[in-house]
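Example 3.2
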Amino acid sequence: SSVTYLGKESFAYCLKLEKINLANGLKSIDESAFVKCENMDSIIIPDTVDSIGFSAFQGTGLVSVEIPANVKTIGARAFLACESLEEVKFHNSDITIKPYDAGTYGTDTGLFGQCNEDLVVYGKPASAIANTCAKENIYFKAF
């Protein structure tokens, strides 16, 4: 509970990691924190998290994830290549999606590029998430 920040690539390429329950008190999940944790199918993000970095969950085996209302920013590519991802629930209608700098990171492939074609994203209507889903041709459902 004393950990407030998961640094860049904290658990990157941890192929044996399957599930993680992050403790309350965590404020930030940095860039590529769980990139390519291919067997990680479950994560619980505490309500205390307010930012999620670029490519944080890229290439993971996540099936379902809830983004708490306190998350104010999420980086592009956060869910890139999450082929098992079936649903994501966003509880903050004012969340900001931070784009990649194409000059630094290459082509920006959005938030959900190369994901499961049956992915459903839940959120508030007329939100940045709803607009992103429309742009990326991802099924969005309001709640």
